Amino acid sequence: MRLEEDEELLRNLAHTLRASRQDLPKAVARILEQQRQLEHELEAVKMKSAQARIDELITGRKSIDGTTVVSAQVDGVDPSVLRELAEQIGTKIASGVVVLGVASNGKVGLVSFVSKDLQKRFRAGNITKKVVEIVGGSGGGRPDFAQASGKDIEKIDQALQAVYNIVAGT
Questions:
Q1: Residue 37 neighbours by CB under 8 Å, 6+ apart
Q2: Are 159 and 108 in contact (CB under 8 A)?
């Protein structure tokens, strides 16, 4: 009985993968490689899309007591892309505080970047700790960069707006 089930399974797999039974391992390896390639291409597309928004995000910056602040939600990116975006925005504005957030899979991801010239006044880790409390999470980091995650995606806007108050010291 078990042997017949296995034979049927192999026949179905061979038919589905359009391969002979002997070539099933190669067909599975080929599909896995295609999947890895597609995932890599998708990440590249997401990154290009996010990078296209850099100027838009910078345009939305505010000046709080002479400090440039960019605080925004960026949809459809992974935390690693979010980190890179924050660093690129920070480099482009030269001096300022950048906090970016993303809500996906029921979680909030946050990254903070503080330019070198402002690290005596503001620490990315401290900013992140205050912001992530609003979304029910934890995290921290270095004076120049920090990241965190939280659970309450409904409060991501409130958390990102809080950045301005944190920089203003209120």
A1: none
A2: yes
